[in-house]
Structure formats: structure tokens, C-alpha cells
Sequence to fold (116 residues):
Amino acid sequence: MSDIRTLVDPDTFAELQQTAGAEFVHELVGTFLEEAPRMLAGLRGALAQADAQAFRRTAHSIKSNSLSFGAQPLAEAARALELGGLPVEPAALDALDALYQRSAAALQELRHGRRP
Fold:
């Protein structure tokens, strides 16, 4: 099992729960987990189409959503793609996808009340 603390800052996540309410954060995480795979596919599509604007916009969305939950490593990886723009090696998107998978598992654990 991954170390949640390395993927999601528990203080940021707890602060979000205190501010927005645990039930609402539960819903937000669910929405992010549904939308992020589409965003990741959108990055690949933008790369294939050489659509730099769509690529930056999608990377920005992943970064912003990740920051909201305290998923700092995922946000930093998305930020690097946002700032770097196209062209990018497909391996960079593979790495982002793998980091997303690990971060999603950590968010699921936090969403269901597991404490780091």
C-alpha cells in the first residue's frame, strides 16, 4: 500500500473537509476520479493533434484540481507539462498517468476515512 502522505498532503485535505464539509469533499473526490481519466486522455489527444492550447489548458485543469485536494506531486507533474507545453514525449504522459493512479488510490483511502 502506498504512503498516502507522499501523494496527498493530509493537512490540505483535512482543511478542505473542514471548509467545505466532509460529504461535499467526498463528492468532489468522486467527480475528480471520474473526470481525471478523461483529462488524461485529453492530453494524449492534444498531443496527437499537436493542439498546444488544449494541451496546456488540460494540464492546467489537472494541476488545479490536484492542488485542491493536496495532491502536490500530481499537481507539480501537471504543472511541468502545462509550462513545458508541446512537444512532449509520450513517456511523460505515461508517468503522469501512473502518478495519477497512485494519487487516486490515496484520495480514495482518504475519501473513505483512512488517515495517513
About this structure: The mean pLDDT is 94. The first helix runs from residue 4 to 7. The two ends are 11 Å apart (CA to CA). Residues 28 and 71 are 14 Å apart (CA to CA).
